[in-house]
Specification:
Length: 477
């Protein structure tokens, strides 16, 4: 008996839930997002069925663009309550087994178990989920979370080009794949670094500039060079990632939020600087009041600006001292805003505040958000600059809470989400549409899933923080 980490990912989850309650839609192109009216502006696709994906429809694209690609598709409004209920069915099914279930969102979780036959366990879990919910899933098996997560990518590919795991073919193991230290090099070394968990297009470019192109290159990279380029924490993380190293702990204990944010997509783009300043101040005050109501203090402030062309830089700074004063936070947010070049109309603004540890009374050390790909560890007086993954510039790092919306991996490029106002998502699963806040939990590096999982999660940031609605073009921080 050994400890194994399994990663379970539901197949086209939102679309599957809709098809489950409307069986007549099976086999048809189905697009879920916003109000379900493809003629309405600023709505984003939350998910597309496999049949719709064949026409180039994917999550995160404007619903209007999806309609142009596939006008014959069935367009449905998002129903987060239904997805939450279906997710609960799935997770309760898994908890009936002698395993530990760590939920990462509506459609995804890690499962930890002592077993001598992880493939059989995976097959049993898949069968139980189908029997109870009629929904299907894929399962990756690993000796840590990184490998289990990547294994799911291959599990979603019936004719995977990855080398098969030991004893494959002796049973019907469709939808299951094992990736461990034993076959890591064979399966991963020749692959582009972009296929790793947590590396998106921007990070890929950064690594390429260092001469790092393949996973093997990253595994052999000089640790000091990586630390110098990406900071001590992230540099060490990327070095470990190239070797497939990762966390083996699976826990069902809820994690404490580490931050909260509010975002707003405006009905009309903001062009006047005074308008932008007023909105950032308002959002900063609102999110601070939310945090103070929870009895928390703030040690860091980030501002997100999404321009008309969907370029989405994010800048942040550490506060000189922790505070609960909304005016102090608003002033800090406006200081950060001054670092943006506001030379284009703005469609979205957001403010994120990072909590100080509850017991902390002295000046806090800077906390590195591992969602901030490619940044260096910021100093006390420095503002760290980065681009929002959901803005088409990098991959979205999974959080244990916001990974729920769908199979991701289709690169941003032919359209970014358009949506109505929302302001984030909650740290567990998803928030309701409208003025939601998201309470971010400690992040573990995530991925742009490929394969079947490819079409959805590249834009998970927007979707998760829009409560799965496809009504917000908000992204992960």
């Amino acid at each position: 008996m050994s400890w194994w980490v399994l990663h379970l990912d539901m197949d086209q989850f939102i679309a599957a839930v809709e098809i489950r309650r409307r069986p007549e839609l099976k086999g048809l192109p189905v697009v879920v997002g916003g109000s379900g009216d493809p003629t309405q502006p600023r709505q984003v696709v939350a998910t597309a069925s496999y049949e719709a994906r064949e026409f180039g429809v994917h999550s995160g694209m404007p619903v209007r663009a999806a309609y142009k690609k596939c006008p014959q598709a069935i367009f449905l409004p998002s129903d987060p309550a239904a997805y939450e209920a279906a997710s609960t069915e799935v997770m309760d099914t898994l908890r009936a087994f002698p395993v530990v279930v760590e939920v990462w969102g509506w459609d995804e979780c890690f499962v930890g178990a002592e077993t001598g036959d992880p493939e059989q366990l995976a097959a049993d879990l898949r069968a139980a989920v189908v029997e109870r919910t009629t929904l299907t899933c894929s399962i990756g098996i690993g000796d840590n979370k990184v490998r289990a997560k990547l294994a799911t990518t291959f599990a979603k590919q019936p004719r995977s080009h990855a080398a098969p795991f030991e004893q494959a073919g002796q049973r019907d193991l469709d939808g299951v794949y094992r990736l461990t230290a034993a076959n890591w090099r064979e399966v991963m070394n020749h692959r582009n670094v972009r296929e790793l968990w947590g590396i998106g297009s921007r990070m890929e470019r950064n690594l390429n500039e260092l001469g790092i192109v393949t996973v093997a290159d990253l595994a052999a990279a000089d640790l000091d060079v990586l630390r110098q380029r990406f900071g001590p924490r992230m540099g060490a993380w990327y070095a470990a990632l190239g070797r497939g190293l990762g966390d083996t702990e699976v826990t069902d204990v809820p994690r404490e939020p580490v931050s909260r944010s509010r975002e707003e997509t405006f009905p009309h783009d903001l062009a006047e600087p005074d308008e932008i300043v007023d909105q950032v101040r308002r959002i900063a005050v609102e999110v601070t009041r939310d945090v103070v109501a929870e009895g928390r203090s703030i040690q860091r402030v980030s501002v997100k600006v999404r321009f008309r062309n969907f370029y989405t830089p994010i800048k942040s700074r550490k506060l000189p001292e922790i505070t609960q004063d909304p005016e102090v936070i608003a002033a800090a947010a406006l200081e950060v805003l001054e670092k943006f070049d506001l030379n284009r109309p703005v469609r979205l603004l957001g403010v994120r505040v990072e909590f100080a540890p509850p017991q902390q009374t002295s000046h806090p050390e800077p906390a590195l958000d591992q969602g901030e790909i490619g940044e260096t560890v910021p100093g006390d007086e420095e503002a760290d600059d980065r681009e929002d993954p959901s803005g088409g510039t990098d991959s979205v790092l999974l959080e244990p809470s916001t990974s729920a919306l769908e199979d991701r991996g289709d690169p941003v490029g032919d359209g970014q989400p358009e949506a109505e106002q929302t302001q984030g998502g909650q740290d567990h699963h998803h928030a309701v549409p409208g003025e939601s806040q998201h309470r971010d939990r400690p992040r573990s590096p995530g991925t742009t899933d490929q394969g079947d999982g490819a079409q959805e999660r590249e834009h998970r940031g927007e979707l998760d923080h829009a409560g799965g609605q496809g009504q917000g073009d908000e992204g992960a921080w």
